[in-house]
Amino acid sequence: MSVAFEIHDGIALALVDRPPVNAINASVRAGLLDAARRAGEISAVRALVIACRGRTFMSGADLAELAGKVPPPSYVDVLTALENCPKPVIASLHGTALGGGLEVAMACHYRCATASARMGMPEMTLGILPGAGGTQRLPRLVGTLHALDLLISGTPMDSTRAKGLGLIDELIGEDPIAGGLAHAQRLVAAGAGPRPTRSLASRATPIGEQDIAGVLERHARALKGRTTQRALIRAVNAATQPNFEAGLRLEAELSAESLDAPESRALRHVFFAERECARIPGLAGAASPREVRRAAVVGAGTMGAGIAMALADAGIDVALIERGSAALERGLSNIRSNYESAVQRGRIDAATASGRISRIQGFLDMDAAGEADLGIEAVFENLELKCSVLAQLDRVLPGHAIVASNTSSLSLRILAEATRRPQAVIGLHFFSPANVMRLLEIVRGAHTSIDTVVAALSLAKTLRKTGVVVGDGFGFVGNRMMLDGYFRESELMLLQGVPPARIDSVMESFGFAMGPNKVNDMAGVDVGTRVRAELVRREARPAPYHVVSDALTSLGRLGQKSGRGIYRYEPDDRTALPDAEIEPLVAALAAKHAIAPREVSDPEIERRCVLSLVNIGASILAEGLAYRASDIDVIWTSGYGFPRWRGGPMHYADSLGLKEVVKQMRELADTGGGSYWSVSRLLLELAQGGRTFSEWDRERAS
Ligand code: T1G
Question: What's the order of all strands across the beta sheet hosting 47-52?
Answer without folding.
Answer: 3-8, 11-16, 47-52, 89-93, 110-114, 170-172
